[in-house]
Amino acid sequence: MEDLRPIRVFLEVAAQSSFVGAAKGLGLTPASVTRIVAKLEADLGQQLLVRTTRQVSLTSAGAVVAARYRPIVEDFDAATRDVLSANRPDSGRLRINAPMSMGVRVLPPLIAGFRLAYPNIALELSLTDKMVDIIEADADLAIRISASSTDKSTIWRKICTVPRRVIAAPSLFDHLPRPTRPEEIDPDHCLSYGDMPEVWTFEKGGQTRSMRAADRFLGNNGDLLFGMVAAGAGMARLPDFIFADGLARGAVEIVLPDWTVPALWLTLYYPPYETLPPLVATFSDYFEAHMRGVAGLDFASNIAGARAL
Question: Which of 24, 183, 284, 298 could form a disulfide with 161 if both were Cys (CB 3.0 to 4.6 A apart)?
Fold first, then answer.
């Protein structure tokens, strides 16, 4: 910007140790560079540069000015680039928060494809299974797998449903009777996600049955619970995409396969934008399109008009 021009010219002279070199770099004449620096010295009331026939060097005052102003100008330029790129759909920096299991199992090929499609977009991806405050997390958007939100202060874009099942290792039933009804599930062998025992609800032909898990084991990550289940430590209610591979190879089986468990939503979660920034919209559209090929997600149940945005 124009007000920073004298400082920029001075910093370029200091970096080049030459008025001629600075002039070439800035596209100015040496006389213009000399005049601008002289005006800056007059405004600051200090000599900033020592000029000899062989080189240009900083005075002690010039060294202080350069040290103080250089990071300010660099920060200013970085902030300006961020503001300008926020209005472009294919360039800038995007900060994303996502659940741990989804980030590890599902996102790497999607992110790799996105980077190839949009090489000028830099990404920062942080993973946590905790529901984040999108403002405090300093993220442009978050990916969440949860029940429908009642939070009116943020924006939610529902992508699809995430089916869940109760699963167990076949070996668990070597010493336990295999349940045929929800009432036959032993709460002591139920592993819960989160910091409280879960209530499992089952539905079948208009019937609804619920049971509460015991507090023998609580875990805050789906892959952790899957590992416990595969080791024969109990049953867990997990999204299909986490256990699909284990089910295919026979490491786990579905408990009560003729009963259904309420699904979750895969959702994009935004700060309270008035309108989506173009960069955020670019990733959101790419994400929705490419999630359609992921096993364990149900786009068929995504009814028209389900988006909150």
Answer: 298
DSSP bridge pairs for 62: none
Top-confidence range, 22-26, 144-148, 247-251 = 247-251
Q: Are 10 and 48 in contact (CB under 8 A)?
A: yes
Of 128, 125, 134, the C-alpha closest to 155 is: 134
- β-pairing verdict for 155-168 and 261-270: antiparallel
CA distances from 130 to 156, 193, 214, 216 (A): 17, 11, 22, 21
DSSP annotation of 173: G
Q: What is the SS3 assignment for 203?
A: strand
For 70-102, letters b (16+ CB in 10 Å) and e give: eeeeeeeeeeeeeeebbeebebbebbbbbbbbb
Q: Does pLDDT of 90 surpass 80?
A: no
Could you give the 3-state DSSP secondary structure of residue 102? Answer: helix
- Torsion 192-196-197-202 (CA) sign: negative
Say which DSSP state 176 is in: S
pLDDT band at 84 (very low <50, low <70, confident <90, very high): low
pLDDT of residue 105: 92
pLDDT given for residue 178 in this prediction: 94
Per-residue pLDDT for 301 more than 80? no
The pTM (predicted TM-score) of the whole model is: 0.67
Given a contact cutoff of 8 angstroms between Cβ atoms, the answer to whether 301 and 161 are in contact is: yes
CB contact at 8 A, 257 and 240: no
Q: Is 158 helix (H, G, I), strand (E, B) or coil?
A: strand
Residue 253 has pLDDT above 50, yes or no: yes
Burial class (CB in 10 A: 0-12, 13-18, 19+), 262: middle
Q: Which two tokens stand for residue 149?
A: 């939100």
Query: What gap in Å lies between CA 118 and CA 287, rounded to an integer?
Result: 13
State both tokens at 292.
């359609």
What pLDDT, on the 0 to 100 scale, is given for residue 203?
96
